[in-house]
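// run 5 | inverse folding | seed 20
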């Protein structure tokens, strides 16, 4: 077992009905914020409750809000992460608009515009998933992740404190244990972490 499977955790939204599922407004969605680098000084990103009107959860706003490819974070975590230089990470001002149309501007969106090719293909449990038969790009449907020790050994730890694994059908964020320990110490709400060595797809539900 590589040490990295124990050192890294995957971030998930808590599996209960109280969690807000964020949805970008039209202008935010067009900016491709979840995988493109944004210019500094631009307009903030705007999010609303992703449920339809009749299904909306209560606006129980948590310290962190996880979505499919990133998360909204509070100022304390933003300040903690800002002391590091992490490859591909961008932390962008964001506003959540609640069900009553009130703005909550105390969030930043943590996303990544690069991916790390660090999946051990021989030890992970994967399936090939082709989104489009006319497209040559195949994606891995990973049932169990096994991180490639040789790849990660050659990357400075600070640079890989947070990353996404390349060529996977799901855009999970992987967090180094030092960041997870900070979040746990501060008792931030809105996120669950599962250690890579313990995770099998479906455990998050």
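// decoded
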């Amino acid at each position: 077992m590589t040490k990295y499977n124990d050192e890294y955790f995957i971030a998930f939204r808590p599996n209960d009905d109280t969690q807000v599922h964020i949805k970008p407004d039209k202008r935010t969605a067009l900016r491709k914020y979840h995988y493109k680098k944004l210019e500094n000084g631009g307009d903030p990103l705007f999010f609303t409750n992703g449920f339809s009107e009749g299904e909306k959860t209560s606006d129980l706003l948590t310290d962190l809000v996880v979505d499919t490819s990133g998360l909204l974070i509070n100022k304390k975590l933003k300040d903690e992460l800002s002391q590091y230089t992490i490859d591909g990470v961008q932390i962008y001002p964001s506003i959540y608009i609640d069900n009553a149309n009130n703005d909550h501007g105390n969030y930043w969106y943590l996303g990544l515009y690069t991916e790390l090719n660090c999946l051990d293909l021989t030890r992970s449990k994967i399936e090939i998933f082709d989104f489009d038969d006319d497209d040559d790009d195949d994606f891995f449907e990973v049932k169990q992740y096994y991180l490639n020790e040789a790849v990660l050994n050659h990357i400075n730890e600070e640079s890989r404190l947070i990353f996404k694994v390349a060529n996977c059908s799901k855009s999970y964020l992987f967090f180094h244990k030092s960041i997870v320990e900070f979040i746990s110490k501060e008792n931030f709400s809105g996120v669950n972490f599962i250690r890579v060595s313990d995770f099998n797809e479906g455990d998050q539900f």
